[in-house]
């Protein structure tokens, strides 16, 4: 009986979306008659039909207006969150612009790292984990540098308590440095490391360069993770980071990869692909809008995200991104740098078929949306 | 040790900076060096700056020594009796001037009770933290600062008695309020600046209520009877001028009634206002298009050959006539000459402006509004004693803007009007609200300023008591008569063939980029096309070359620019701006080719 129902439901596959079909399958009472089932399904198809967008509806423009209007209010109140306890994150209009432009270098890259079982409830283990992933450079550990010109040595005093925090000794440091820097001898004492030139030629400049070089040397942690902050989120602890490195973090065994995420959309695209990037765009934009207390329907943002990701990679709403993909020469020329577009079009001998809105407004012809869309066909006898 | 700079130039060092600075100040207070010299010690950079140059704004403060003001009761008494004056106080070292730099070293309080040994100066009046226009807002200390700024900005736009010699002046765009009054609720600044000599508003009876929604969204309602009796009536003056310019070859313009053989002669009717000197007679009522000053100019582009050619030597008409939408009465004429010695004629036109729907009014608290309706007296609400308001103000304007001073002025105005006195509303030193309330009670009114009102139309008593009182209202210079503009057809621009822009050019109201978007969003595609038809043209397009051709009237057919008559030409309707775009693309060296296709 149940199988029969499911088969009957399956017949509507082309007319209803899969999620609706799934819901119907799960919720249908087993005792329903065949006639009743058809009735239910037909009602559903009719209701689904009314929820659809009409042909010729100008969805893109309506989305632009729906995002643009609250956007004007947003510009006025972006000066929120000035140095509060949590990390400083770009919000408001600057963040929206950043996302829609698909910037590769975002102002405040950030990660939310969720952890697996024992780690997320144990604050000590969590702290250890946090310390482990934080990128630590030699410069952060060193407290004093002294260049001895006569002996041609560089002495570096290391902050011992910091060293203990990271569970390291000066010997570990020397090991790391020796692997990266060649041509120097390094000797370590309790809290001092002494560098001297191993070769014959002795130049002060070399030692100075060495000093600058080892300052930036990564000793421990993940590249790019500049700051870590354990935070309680509901029942569990998570780690917030400033600076991202999604790929390496996901590879760690402690990390719950299903929930861990970053706000760097381009990084998501590179690590997880376009679909994930699309979701990230929607999520990130919506987060900003919600924080501002504005009310924009998600579907408008989804449409923008779809357009941005339609080519298989993330493209910004700029003259290098989405606008470049427009078919019409006139439409492209009407959006920033017209002469460049016209000349390039002329070189390629492009043809504008006048199929979209902007071109038709320009030549004063009916635009192909709404009442301008349908045409009449006469039957000749 | 500190470096000493005089007017930003290094002059030496001082071993004991504090002592040095004290010494300079002492000398100044004793009058041994000028009171305009200032001294400033920057402890962080170890620098002492002395200034004696021009361009520094400075202000007077009472000097404080050991927590005590040097201005004593004795001084005040002497001042009152006229024994000493301001310069005496400076000479005695009671008051000194500080500039912006020296203020950095001073600790100033504005209340004598708050003085501590650390203080160096005392403000003469706490109200001196604000400027002159801001001080003109009564009870200003009850307001948000932004409202004070708006309030003082509005006062600058108010009509008033701006100059006593107005009848001799040729100001561009000036307004004169008839019957200006001194405000019942005033501040000390009104007295100090002799506001009564140049007032700019009138005391009106204001009711805070709604009246059929004609005052919603910052509207105000005026009583028609009040307006007809002269409330806020004003005169608008505008000069029309011209001069006899000189041209090469000894030619010159001539101000006179043009001869009939002049090129571009209008008609006798058009010159009917002009007297024999070519200028209109006083008290002539002129309307748009009428000639105000008759003038002829020598012919343009006169080459040497044409000098002997009589036909080309006719002068052309260049009279000055009133522009679109202007009217007035000739009020005052000035005949003079300009810097180059050319004859200059100025005619001042006068226009009486009776308040009408759309004119702008404001109180002194940034509560501006536009007249929504003029209500005839029989329909106005009236109080028990038969008082009808001159102006009805909406209560919704107060809650979000928090202009408490507006409400207190209304109360104070009522007290002042009933008691026959002026009420002081000086910043921080105003009469207390409780006192005003008590006095109102003593005058036989409810202490909160409300009264029972009756609807003028039905005679029924209103359910709520109405807050009513006297307020100083200002008429602002933005009047609809100067701004109203509409057109259906009219002049177009030469280049784009689109309608002109702006009121002076009888322009259209642009349906802009974002307005266009709303048409598209509604799917009103054909309506949008029609709206943009203002510059539509039908051009012949060559089917072979794809270029736009032209109609050759001699041949009686359209011609292609490339193939002449050897191509099929089709007529296409486009906007002229697009034709222009194609032309411009061609100037780029790009060949824009139109492929034509039947629409159906």
Give me a quick take on this structure.
With 381 residues, chain A is of the alpha+beta class. Chain A has 18 helices and ten strands. Chain B is built from 15 helices and 36 strands.
Give the CATH topology of the largest domain in chain B.
Dna-directed Rna Polymerase Ii 140kd Polypeptide, Chain: B, Domain 6
Low-confidence stretches of chain A: 78-85
Radius of gyration of chain B: 35 Å
Continuous helix count of chain B:
15
Could you give the count of β-strands of chain A? 10
- The tally of beta strands of chain B, per DSSP, is 36
Shape of chain B: extended
The CATH architecture category of the domain at 136-220 in chain A equals Alpha-Beta Complex
Structural class of chain A: alpha+beta
Q: If helices are DSSP runs of H or I spanning 4 or more residues, what is the number of helices of chain A?
A: 18
* Name of the CATH superfamily of the largest domain in chain B: DNA-directed RNA polymerase, subunit 2, domain 6
Distance between the termini of chain B: 94 Å
What is the total number of structural domains of chain B? Answer: 3
Largest pleated sheet of chain B:
6 strands, mixed, barrel
Summed over residues and divided by their number, the pLDDT of chain B gives a mean of 92
Task: Note down, in words, how this protein is organized.
The complex is a heterodimer of chains A (381) and B (600). With 381 residues, chain A is an alpha+beta fold. Among the domains of chain A are: 2-51; 136-220, Dipeptide-binding Protein, domain 1 (Alpha-Beta Complex), CATH 3.90.76; 326-372, DNA polymerase, domain 1 (Orthogonal Bundle), CATH 1.10.150. Chain A contains 18 helices and 10 strands. In chain A, α4 (59-74) crosses α15, α5 (92-100) runs antiparallel to α14 (274-291) and α14 (274-291) packs antiparallel against α15 (298-309). The longest helix of chain A has 18 residues, at 34-51. Chain A is flat. The two termini of chain A are 53 Å apart. Chain B has 15 helices and 36 strands. With 600 residues, chain B is α+β, with helices and mostly antiparallel strands. In chain B, α10 runs parallel beside α11. Helix content of chain B is 20%, strand content 26%. Chain B has 3 domains: 2-124, Hypothetical Protein Ta0175, Chain: A, domain 2 (Alpha-Beta Complex); 140-233 and 357-475, Dna-directed Rna Polymerase Ii 140kd Polypeptide, Chain: B, Domain 6, CATH 2.40.270; 239-352, OB fold (Dihydrolipoamide Acetyltransferase, E2P) (Beta Barrel), CATH 2.40.50. The interface between A and B is medium-sized, with 27 and 30 residues.
